[in-house]
Amino acid sequence: MTIVRNDANVEDLVQLTFLKAHLARDRFELRGGPPDGAVLAWYFAIGRNLALDFLRSQGRNSKRQAPGRSNEQIKRVADSAPSIEDRAVRQDLDAEIIEQVHGALALLPASQREVVEMHKLRGYSMAEVASRLQISEGAARVRAHRGYRALARLLTRSIIVSLWVLTLGASPLSRWIGQ
Fold first, then answer.
1. Average pLDDT of span 118-132
2. Fewer CB within 10 Å: N-end or C-end of the chain?
3. How far is Cα 100 from Cα 52, in angstroms, rounded to an integer?
4. How far apart, in whole angstroms, are the C-alpha atoms of residue 133 and residue 122?
C-alpha cells in the first residue's frame, strides 16, 4: 500500500503475489534462521518486486501519454524505503512475535502441538498430517482447530500484557504479578 497507494491495484498485486509464490513454491529454500521469518521475507520480496514492476509499467504508460513526465513514483518508492534502523527494529519485532508464537505453541497439549506444527510450520496437508500421525483426517482437523483456538487465546493475552507493559512500564506489571 505504501508503494502503490491505490486500493484496487494493491488488491490485484496481493493476489498476484500469492499466485507467484504458489507457482514458485518448489524454488523456496530455507537457509537457516526461523522458518516463519524466511517465508514472510520471501512473500514480501515477491510483493515488493511486483509493486515496483507495476510502477515501472505505469511510468512507461504515462511517458507514452505525457512525454515530459519522469518516474516520480519510482523515485518516491526509493526515498520511502526503510532505513537500516527501521529494518533492524522490524527484525526485532518479528523475532519477538515468532518467539511468542513458539512459546504459545509449547504450552499446547502435545496432540494439538503436533498437528499445528506439521500443518502450519512444515506445510503438510491435513491428509498428510493424519497419515503421519495414524489418525483420521477429521480427528486431525479437530485437533488443529482446538490448537488454533488455544493459540489465539494465548497470543491475545500475550499481546494485551505486552501493550500494558509498553504503556505503563514494567514495574506495575511486576507488582501485579507479585500479588
1. 92
2. C
3. 33
4. 14
Q: Are 107 and 158 in contact (CB under 8 A)?
A: no
How many other CB atoms are there within 10 angstroms of residue 112's CB atom? Answer: 21
The dotted CATH code for 83-171+175-179 is 1.10.10.10
| Sole residue written with cell 505505469 | 58
DSSP letter at 33?
S
| pLDDT above 90: percentage of residues in the chain | 23
Q: What is the pLDDT of residues 73-124, one digit of tens each?
A: 556 555 566 677 777 777 877 788 788 888 889 999 999 999 999 998 888 9
CB-neighbour burial class of residue 115 (10 A; exposed 0-12, middle 13-18, buried 19+): buried
User: Residue 3 in contact with residue 48, Cβ under 8 Å?
Assistant: yes
Name the residue among 126, 129, 102 with its Cα closest to residue 114: 129
User: What's the chain's length in residues?
Assistant: 179
Element housing 143 (H / E): helix 137-168
Query: Are the beta carbons of 80 and 112 closer than 8 angstroms?
Result: no
Domain locations in the chain as residue ranges: 1-81, 83-171+175-179
At residue 55's C-alpha, the angle toward residues 54 and 58, to 5°, is 90
Task: Specify the residue for cell string 511510468.
Answer: 59
